[in-house]
Amino acid sequence: MRIRIVDAFTDRPFTGNPAAVVLLDSGPFPGDDRLQRLAAEVNLSETAYARPLPEDSEADWALRWFTPTTEVNLCGHATLATAHVLHSTGAASGTVRFATRSGILTATTAADGSVTLDFPTAPLTEVEVDDDVRAALGADVLSAHDTGPNVGDLLVELADEKTVRALSPDLSAVARLDHRGVIVTAPAAEEGVPYDYVSRFFGPAVGIDEDPVTGSAHTALAPLWSARLGREELTGLQASPRTGLVRTALRGDRTLLTGDAVTVIDGDLLIGP
């Protein structure tokens, strides 16, 4: 059985966000314990498992995502990585429909190899910021939003790009907050750069201290910054050490996420999941 590691939301290897992709045969998924053990062994922020569905199904492939410690409801970069593998291996072309915990998600691969994901827009609810959040982040907070059940994170606006880039949160305190993780964001500091806003994501509660590039977070970042900047189409830079760009297009209750991907490892699993 093959396992591939793909750098997503980048066109250069060793940048963006690496995801492991395992294409399974048709039929039921292996047991959850086996899937989780392999994800822990790979120890990337996400491992994606996809299996083909019968032709009369509402989707083409069933897709699940696991961090090293748990299964999650929504993951952007591992979905992009899976679509990239399906396209590059000839297993699929054009638009692929995935059956997931978050409903039917589609991924469309363009002629240049870029992939556009059609995801549900996160419903943002502004919330009060308590002292625990400020202490965990070690920074002043301008605003905060709950991102709803699919994403499950706290979206926090900080003072500026410099603050986002320099942030060094107390990860043990972040893990104790009442959310899956924390997205921090600010507008781009300068005009003329190839992005409109910056972000970072911290999810120690689900085994991810800092995620390099978080597609699902951009379903919340897109409506926030589209409202602030007055444009439906934007580009976000996730300012992790690996960095990555996510092009977003807000379409009401759907958000389009576009990025590139590069396969960096293609090998065999000696023990199946």
TrEMBL record:
Active site, renumbered: E46
Classification via Gene3D superfamilies: Diaminopimelate Epimerase, Chain A, domain 1
GO molecular function, one term: isomerase activity
Highest taxon, organism lineage: Bacteria
CC terms in the record's Gene Ontology section: cytoplasm
Record key words, sorted: Isomerase
Family matches, as Pfam families: PhzC-PhzF (PF02567)
Alphabetized InterPro entries for the sequence: Phenazine_PhzF-like (IPR003719)
NCBIfam families: PhzF_family (TIGR00654)
Family: Belongs to the PhzF family.
Entry protein name: PhzF family phenazine biosynthesis isomerase
